């Protein structure tokens, strides 16, 4: 495990983007797993800057996002698909047909999840997975208690997660969907390389739990300690509770 501690959220995003750029320069056909959420906004800003200023191209990159809310379609402003279009896809040269997304409005959610796993497999698996972390230690939408063997599936969101994400629903927790589709823990662990980004005091318990705690399904991110190529890029506040 590699631990990189930087000053603030902006620096987390920049460092993360630089590492992604390095991987794309080594392999322009990279299969890239992506995340959404507040932590990711400066990260996507930095990637867009690298695209504009440093000729970084996403033309041949294939992307798979981690998760999506059940019941929202991709045009809904609160969907993760919309978030990605707005903050990243519309601003770089990624080809539309290379973007893979879970459809939270699919008729058969079980088949939707199975197909997603198959699509990942058909492209040879994920080369690099980007992750955020929830205050409760979730990765993707794998909440505490998620089976380490889980694959892409429908899940129930916890109250803490819905409260955190209310910021994307005009501050109204009751408007945050109760269910989501998410890549599973085993899906995430199958990625060849993983980079987790975290910022702020509110994430310090989750970070300490992942890095210093017991590896347990109670702390989903702790499973990453079993991965052979994982980097945590976090700011000082998120690192505040790590054992010295
Ligand atoms: C979203 C995702 C989640 C977020 C996490 C942190 O695609 O996978 O695990 O990364 O909930 O969200 P923020 O950054 O908003 O605190």
Describe this structure in words.
This protein has 244 residues and is an alpha/beta fold. The protein has a single domain, classed as Rossmann fold, CATH 3.40.50.1360. Helices cover 31% and strands 17% of the residues. It has seven helices and ten strands. Helix 7 links the parallel strand 9 and strand 10 (230-235). Helix 1 (9-26) crosses helix 2. The chain binds fructose -6-phosphate (F6R). Fructose -6-phosphate binds at residues 35-39, 66-67, 80, 132-134, 138-140, 164. Residues 35-39, 66-67, 80, 132-134, 138-140, 164 line the site of fructose -6-phosphate.
Quick tags:
seven-stranded parallel beta sheet; 244 residues; binds fructose -6-phosphate; Rossmann fold; three-stranded antiparallel beta sheet; 7 helices; 17% strand; 10 strands; alpha/beta
Summary, kept brief:
This protein is of the alpha/beta class and 244 residues long. It is 31% helix and 17% strand. The protein has one domain (2-235): Rossmann fold.
CATH class: Alpha Beta
Domains counted in the coordinates: how many? 1
The DSSP helix count reads: 7
Percent strand equals 15-25%
Oligomer: single chain
| Order of helix and strand elements from N to C terminus | EHEHEEHEHEEHEHEHE
Give the radius of gyration.
17 Å
Layout of secondary structure:
Blueprint: E1 2-6, H1 9-26, E2 31-34, H2 40-53, E3 62-65, E4 67-69, H3 80-87, E5 99-100, H4 109-122, E6 128-131, E7 153-156, H5 159-165, E8 179-182, H6 185-189, E9 193-198, H7 204-212, E10 230-235
Parallel strand pairs: 1-10, 2-3, 2-6, 3-5, 6-9, 9-10
Antiparallel strand pairs: 4-8, 7-8
Bound molecules: fructose -6-phosphate (F6R).
